[in-house]
Specification:
85 residues; 2 strands; mainly alpha; single chain; elongated; Multidrug-efflux Transporter Regulator, Chain: A, Domain 2; two-stranded antiparallel sheet
Length: 85
């Protein structure tokens, strides 16, 4: 994931902005963090200061999830196509 030297202020997003950027719900961002798919670029500082997420990290998570879904779909089609034959 992101390294401090790779962060640019324009790429840092609050959870709400990150969800809008990734076109998912804020709860999905929280799930990605919980599942270890995404780490905050800058952790929450508490007292109403949210964690910040790096836009390229969000792009990477979405790419990985899309690849995994394509693999699952291909495996399903291979299995069910073989049964139909």
């Amino acid at each position: 994931m992101s390294r401090l030297h790779n962060l640019y202020p324009k790429n840092l997003l609050t959870p709400k902005q990150a969800a809008a950027y990734a076109e998912v719900a804020e709860s999905t961002i929280r799930q990605w963090v919980h599942r270890g798919l995404l780490e905050p670029a800058l952790p929450s500082q508490g007292r109403g200061i949210p964690a910040l997420y790096n836009a390229p990290d969000l792009d990477e998570v979405k790419r990985k999830l899309a690849e995994a879904e394509a693999e699952r779909q291909a495996a399903w089609e291979a299995e069910h196509g073989a049964r139909a034959a």
